[in-house]
Amino acid sequence: MFEVTALLFGVLCGLLILLSGVGAGVIMVPGLMLLFGVAPATAVGTASLVSVLIKVVATYAHGRDSRVDWTLFKRFSRWAVPSCLLLALVITLLLRTSWGGSVQHGLKLAVLAAAGFALLASFRPQVLQHVGQWLGGLMPSACGAMVGATGVGGGVLIVPTLRAMSGADIKVVVGTSTVIGLLLSACTGLVFSGGGHLEPLLALLVTLGGAVGVMLGRPLVARLSSRAVSGLVYTLIGVSLLNMTYDLLLV
């Protein structure tokens, strides 16, 4: 039953990553905690590694269909990657101290806060614009730091930020976000898994299911309107936010 559940969960995640750019942070991390009972840090490490492997397939699909803005990718990544690596290293080092339990609880709060901010920004775009104006060129660094600390990435912070930075079509934004998410998830996954925060069998099963989900979802991307994809992105963020709130109340 464990194997079947993990495979089906992977298929769902693969579909969602391809169609919406939402993945490791708002779908996988809470899903792994709720469905499989793994610790927050292990959920971040496992989800980030799985996200990398699934997004390799999703990146190929988006790139082949010309839905990636490579100039925007370079502008964002050169600031996001260093902050992502730094925060991931800080978190994994803190988990080895006597504060480890508090850090695990703090990870849940951080993921919830990031998802809540993204949901607010979806209904009040001016919020993200104001934050972007306040942070200026630090927005990519802030996004990278959040991914490095919590595994939250594409659908929660990067998609709205890219839209604010470029005003590009949502499908191009999702495609570009997927490639950026691949890079940042790789950084986070390597650091967390290197610190022992990984469930190898679970990661393998979810990855296999995710690859199937990506292949099944590719024909749907061309058929869905930009409005439908945008609605899907923020609906998923809202659902994930409710899941994380419920999980947090159980502690």
Order of helices and strands: HHHHHHHHHHH
Give me the secondary-structure category.
mainly alpha
Beta-strand percent range: under 5%
Distance between the termini: 26 Å
What would you report as the Rg, rounded to the nearest angstrom? Answer: 16 Å
User: How many strands appear in the DSSP assignment?
Assistant: 0
What is the mean predicted local confidence, pLDDT?
Answer: 78
Helix content: over 70%
Spans of at least 5 consecutive residues with low confidence = none
Number of helices: 11
| Biggest sheet statistics | none
Assembly status? single chain
Envelope shape = globular
What can you tell me about this protein's structure?
- With 251 residues, the chain is an all-alpha fold.
- It is built from eleven helices and no strands.
- It has helices spanning 2-20, 24-36, 40-64, 70-95, 100-123, 125-135, 139-150, 154-166, 170-194, 200-223, 226-249.
- The longest helix has 26 residues, at 70-95.
- The chain is globular and about 45 Å long.
- The two termini are 26 Å apart.
Q: What's the short story on this structure?
A:
The protein is mostly helical. Helices cover 86% and strands 0% of the residues. It is built from eleven helices and no strands.
